[in-house]
Amino acid sequence: MSPVADLAAANESVTRRMTHLRQLEAEGIHIMREVAEVFENPVLLYSIGKDSSVMLHLARKAFYPEKPPFPLMHIDSTWEFREMIDFRERYVREELGLDLIVEINEEGVRSGINPFDYSSRVYTDIMRTQTLKAALDKHRFDAALGGGRRDEERSRAKERIFSFRDRNHRWDPKNQRPELWDVYNTWVHRGESIRVFPLSNWTELDVWQYILLEKIPLVPLYLAAPRPIVERNGDWIMVDDERMRLEPGEVPQMRKVRFRTLGCYPVTGAVASDADSVLGIVHELLTTRWSERQGRAIDRDEEAAMERKKREGYF
Amino acid sequence: MTTESLPTTLAETAEFLARHETKDMLRFITCGSVDDGKSTLIGRLLLETGAVYDDQLAALKHDSTKHGTTDLDVDPALLLDGLEDERQQGITIDVAYRYFQTPRRKFIIADSPGHEQYTRNMVTAASTAKAAIILMDARKGMLPQTRRHSFIASLVGVRSLILAVNKMDLVDYSEEVFNRLSDEFLAFAKRLDVRDIHRMPLSGLRGDNVIRKSQRMAWYEGPPLLEVLETLPVGDDDLNAPLRYPVQRVVRPTADFRGYAGTVASGTVRVGDQVMVLPGRQQSRVKSIVTFDGDLPSASAGNAVTLTLEDEIDITRGEVLAHPDRLPQVDKHFDATLVWMSQTPLVPGKSYWLKIGPKHVAAEVQRVTCRIDVNTLNRVETANLKLNEVGYGRIEVHAPIAFDPYRQNHHTGNFILVDRVSHETVAAGMIIDPRTDAPPGEHFDVGLPSRQLQFTPSRISAQRRQARFGHPGLTILMSGLSGSGKTTLAFALEEILFDAGHAVTVLDGQNMRHGISRDLGFTIEERSENLRRASEICRLFNDAGLICVAAFVAPDEATRAKARDVVGRDRWLHIHLSAPPEVCRQRDASGRYEAADRGEIASFPGVTVPFAPPTDADLVLHTDQMDAPQCLEAIRRLVNAKLNPNP
Ligand SMILES: Nc1nc2c(ncn2[C@@H]2O[C@H](COP(=O)(O)OP(=O)(O)O)[C@@H](O)[C@H]2O)c(=O)[nH]1
Prior knowledge:
- The complex is a heterodimer of chains A (315) and B (647).
- Chain A has helices at residues 3-16, 20-38, 50-63, 82-95, 106-110, 120-139, 204-214, 278-287, 305-312; strands at 42-45, 72-75, 100-103, 143-145, 162-165, 193-196, 225-232, 235-238, 253-258, 269-272.
- Chain A has 315 residues and is an alpha/beta fold.
- In chain A, helix 2 packs across helix 3 (50-63) and helix 7 packs antiparallel against helix 8 (278-287).
- Chain A is globular and about 60 Å long.
- In chain A, 50% of the residues are buried.
- Chain B is α/β, with parallel strands linked by helices and 647 residues long.
- In chain B, the strands form six sheets. A seven-stranded antiparallel β-sheet of chain B has the order 7-15-11-12-14-9-8, with no helix packed on it. A six-stranded mixed β-sheet of chain B has the order 2-3-1-4-5-6, with helices on both faces.
- In chain B, strand 21 and strand 22 form a beta hairpin.
- At the A-B interface, helix 1, helix 2, helix 3, helix 7 and helix 8 of A face helix 1, helix 3, helix 4, strand 2 and strand 3 of B.
- The complex binds guanosine-5'-diphosphate (GDP).
């Protein structure tokens, strides 16, 4: 090859080489397609948060021009922020017209399980973990796509992208299938299932950069706005509806805050922020030094809480 | 180093992101033995590139007082230990993934453990890696693990090896130590199938040459570790390879749209390209390349797209599209390197699922041709493979599939084997082309001269030979000075074993020089070469099922170790005959001691060059204190115990 042609080829290579976000995107699409092809009855676990939003976006890309060939499922604890439920109904169900299942632990609701009277451990177990397990059994889902990332928490760093669960939905960290190249072992027996994490290799910054790049719609709670807040055990809790029990002397204050993760409002801490755009969030992320789990009360229960919860079947 | 000041305004953030958007990605692995400082080094990379948040750091400080092993207030190693049980044991036992980034690159570290029994984890970690950091403790130097890790990395196709000589602070940052260790490593690593080798001295604990160049090692002129990682070529191999497009999914939302979804494994596909579908061999032209973001004129390696074709042809999941002038191989049979990953050994002839790309087929391993000892890189004859063993095998699939040799294309040359009942992943496979991929060989620093050389194994297994002779092949080295009694005892032993019904022969150092080593003199190099030839011959005898008694002076440890590696540890017995030099001189009838005294023999062990007594002999006999029958009885008992381990 002549030097000129060589140079041209080298230049072409450079422009064809994929950026890290495009590589992560392609990996996610590949994983989603594999799930749709191989499993009889997969589901995408949709929690309405930013990671779920990225997953949903990848699913739309993966199957275009089709709609995603599997339903979305939201485990609704009944204590989510109202804006989350609005977003779910308006955007996912109405605008995108996707097949969306909502599961609620009616038994738990009847027994009055709530995040005030019960420890976050008991509450989460009943309203989310048990509900999720029951729903997976009820619908006979053999694969569930989740938005977990390995950078979130130490115990996740070792989890496979295709993570096997036994008949009781348990994860055995000591006995994971080796995961080689991009060839996934997807074989399961009846009753067993696989949790699939297409965002395994994404970091929080990747997620936000991708949301910015792809203009992915989000629940507005991620953006800073004046919200009614009370301070409890160092966390800023938003008074989202009349069910919030105020302690004697507690008076909600309006503060400009946003949320880094979304879940049940009484146990999700807000952070003071001026970031009212996705660009602002990325800016904040680059300049602040706190991890997103910081505001999640359930994670501080004890050391290695996450690993225990996963063995019990929590996502 | 390329630390970049963080943006202070939104506009700067936007600019910052625009720069970051062109960032690429490097996946690498870290290998080291326990306590070489791997966790410390990775922890430091994460800490210093800002991958750890303040609240995590606070938790770390808490842990450092609980489990930590350093006197610093933060032990970087503790960042890494993920699972409760392992943390209590204080070791890492699985593959864990870590993430950090610099303005130039996003990095994914697959952290794999260092124990022998975890070959499977290391292969898993290395399968997606482009580079491997091989850690070496400056005080310990090359260990068997160093070779093993480097070999496995090269086997799985890792292109770049980075030797990190760690804990330089404990050897006074000595240039001499670094040069010695890194030269030794280079001599070994040159023979591996890797593209580039980098070497650097560092201290993970003190931070020397990790992120920044160290003032304490001014003599080191190369870049620090992070800079090497930032500038390693990520490889355009996939882009430059021929087009391979495995169809992952057939898309038929309506009667008039038929698309083929997949990820371009290698090369580039363009609208209008003539393509052939394999193994079916139908042809058509690419009509469009469809994505959610609009149609594309072309798509290259790594992109997930959907193709439509001009003609209505029947394509199913797992078939591969390629340009008709650069086709993959299509066959039901192929050879492959297998890494066994299950507690249950391989069963030749048993039906497994084989998954290659999106395709799965029933397959069996017809036979295993040999196993590679990952410590010595020697081929060992075997009929099956057990957990953590690496070997070569012949695979048969039940319907023809399209593939390429792994060296040419990682994506279309790898596969996994899955047990059809337990669903366990039992093996990782890499297809080899027997015409171009010779198994690695490096005895006595003699690499295989050419890749074209083929190694054809015998079809008679070691088991069948053993059934015929009643014993496995075995080499009995009798080492010692001239006059220590080697030759006498060797021939007497031969007679005893022969009379006991064994197939046995003697290889004698002096006798060798009458024929096969006629061209050799007596310098140290020539003596070593004589022993090299002898050990290759022992190995051939052993492969043929014979017991070989080898009588050689074998004066230095390194040469003996190499001979043992050639023959194989499991069929090697070393009996050392020890007697004071004066006694040997007296006994020796050949006149060689006198010749050595006169300077006629350049280097003569015991006279002009030292004899290094072995530290690892299976039996040492003081032939000045025991008579021949006593010696022979001791040897006979040892040999019997070796031949019949469970009488
Ligand atoms: N002096 C010195 N000690 C080190 C260095 N790197 C690691 N260590 C120590 O060596 C021990 C083992 O380190 P660790 O990172 O846990 O090793 P791993 O088993 O390879 O992960 C610990 O006590 C470390 O503090 C180094 O560069 N210099």
